[in-house]
Design goal:
The protein has helices at about 5-15, 20-25, 80-95, 110-115, 145-150, 150-160, 165-175, 185, 190-195, 200-215, 225-255, 265-270, 275-285, 290-295, and strands spanning about 35-40, 55-60, 65-75, 100-105, 120, 125-130, 130-135. The chain is of the alpha/beta class. The protein has three domains: about 5-135, Trna Endonuclease, Chain: A, domain 1 (3-Layer(aba) Sandwich), CATH 3.40.1350; about 145-215, no CATH class; about 235-295. Strands 1-2-3-4-7 form a five-stranded mixed β-sheet, with helices on both faces. A two-stranded antiparallel sheet has the order 5-6. The protein is elongated.
Length: about 300
């Protein structure tokens, strides 16, 4: 059964079919000039007993079909595809009557190498070389203009590179592009952050919290994830401010009572952000005769 990890590129291509031409360009493959790119039937059975169905098919049109792309998403290498991929191309070519290209997307570098193996059809000189796009070949979209012009490529870039060494850069650009995108395109942010590992999302969350201080409100974000994230960041900021005030009050009260507070204890009190713990220390500070009694 298809998973979200399998479907995200197909969803982006569904929103903008011409994305496949952009991805092919990253592999040095150009398609003829076209005026429109549209989705086509993924059914490659063509009345054959065995069902053959591709993940996605895009046809580029300039009054008539000028190129067609079979897009396959492979999370793991499957040797059976060596039999079905040639069928996809031959059947599609017969249906649309134009040159056809096989583009395989592999999120894994190791699986991409396997999927790129040539497929010997058997006829002399007829060998299919799958065009495979691995994570290293997905461009890192770090320019705001490019993100706004091609939000689907931006989303793919963020999904593939968001957890990497320079992940903050692509996520920052995605964040900055939000106000320039349509409501539907803003929802790509939700898709990206749902797919990224938690630690990558946490890093990005720090950026959003910082941005919240500038925007003051989450009202400018139409994406539910962004609204919730900013609101959570504001709430955390308020909570930290209250905690800091309570910690300072504890130290001041102990000082007024003449109770020595070593540096280590001061750091512990000031570093605490748990409201329940701080409130218990406030209560104990009234009667505690030493710093040890405060912490007991």
């Amino acid at each position: 059964m298809p998973t979200q990890q399998h479907e995200y590129l197909l969803e982006l291509v569904q929103q903008r079919p011409s994305l496949v031409a952009t991805l092919l360009a990253e592999k040095g493959v150009t398609v003829p000039a076209f005026q429109e790119a549209r989705l086509d039937s993924c059914d490659m059975s063509d009345r054959m007993p065995t069902e053959y169905r591709a993940d996605s098919v895009v046809v580029m049109i300039d009054k008539k079909p000028v190129s067609a792309v079979v897009l396959e998403v492979q999370r793991k290498y499957d040797s059976k595809k060596h039999w079905s991929w040639p069928v996809y191309l031959a059947t599609l070519r017969g249906r649309v009557k134009c040159p056809c290209i096989l583009l395989v997307f592999c999120p894994s570098r190791r699986e991409a190498i396997k999927c790129a193996e040539p497929i010997d059809i058997g006829h002399p000189g007829w060998t299919l070389h799958p065009i495979v796009l691995g994570p290293d070949e997905v461009p890192m979209v770090t320019e705001l203009d490019r993100a706004i012009a091609n939000p689907e490529l931006m989303a793919l870039s963020a999904i593939v590179h968001g957890a990497g060494e320079d992940g903050v850069k692509v996520l920052q650009v995605m964040h900055d592009a939000q106000e320039h995108l349509s409501k539907e395109q803003q929802s790509y942010g939700d898709l990206v952050l749902d797919l990224l590992p938690k630690d990558a999302v946490d890093k990005f969350k720090e950026i959003v919290i910082a941005m919240a201080k500038e925007y003051k409100t989450a009202g400018g974000y139409r994406s539910s994830f962004y609204r919730e994230l900013v609101a959570e960041g504001v709430a955390e900021g308020v909570a930290k401010g209250v905690a800091k005030g309570e910690a300072a009050a504890i130290l001041r009260f102990l000082n007024k009572r003449g109770i020595p507070v070593p540096m280590e204890a001061q750091e512990r009190i000031l570093g605490c952000t748990d409201r329940e713990t701080l409130e218990s220390w406030i209560d104990r500070a009234v009667t505690a005769q030493s710093i040890d009694e405060l912490f007991d």
